Amino acid sequence: MRKHILHRLFEPESVALVGASEKQGSVGLQVLQNLLSADFQGEIYPVNRNYESLQGLECYPSVGDIPGSHGGNLAGPGVRPGHQFRLWR
To answer: What letter would DSSP give residue 86?
Structure first.
């Protein structure tokens, strides 16, 4: 049986979290902590050029810097609209 077209959205194998952060109260930190505490089974790729690591995970300056990257299965923006586009270079 074929998987539904939205399968990758609802059951991603990896998540690139654009705008991941250590800043208390930020969306990027809240989403990262939620993924870690929910025992997400896939790969988590924090993306923020201002950090080398976040919550024990290697952090990448852009989605294109993730090894073997082709955009990942799901990119979860953790930043305000308009700021995330420069991270995709």
So the answer is: G
Dihedral of CA atoms 66, 29, 8, 43 in degrees, nearest 10, equals: 50
Strand-strand pairing, 57-58 and 53-54: antiparallel
Q: Give the strands of the sheet with 14-18, arranged side by side.
A: 43-47, 14-18, 74-75
Strand runs labelled E in 1-89: 14-18, 43-47, 53-54, 57-58, 74-75
Confidence (pLDDT) at 64? 87
Delimit the domains of the chain by residue range: 7-88
What pTM did the predictor assign? Answer: 0.74
Q: According to CATH, what is the number of the domain 7-88?
A: 3.40.50.720
